[in-house]
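Could you join me in thinking about how sequence relates to backbone shape in a protein? We need material for that, and I hope you will provide a protein of your own picking. Label the sequence line and the structure token line clearly, so we can match residues to local backbone shapes. Would you write everything just below, so we can both look at the same thing?
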Amino acid sequence: MDWAFYEIDDLRTQQAAQGRLYLEFLRIPTLSMGLYVLKAGTADPQTPHTRDETYYVVKGNGMFRVADEERSVQTGSVLFVRAGVEHRFHSITEDMEILVFFEESRPR
């Protein structure tokens, strides 16, 4: 694949149709991308991942805990988490839509 094009509205529709929190819409050897949806008042069930990860909050509000730190996040927030680090969204006050970018782990 040399290129790909996605519309966020189409991704929302696909994610809702699947009935899952996470819709992976791209996977290549060095990267995967997905749309993660968390409703207000729900818990984020994720556990640490095996690959580095970047989040872009498309919409919504809540808190993000990584290791022993907490941050308020909202539309436009960008977060990076190294592989294996405990993290999760919580105290979600407005439905969140989050683009997730998983990077291939490389030796450090």
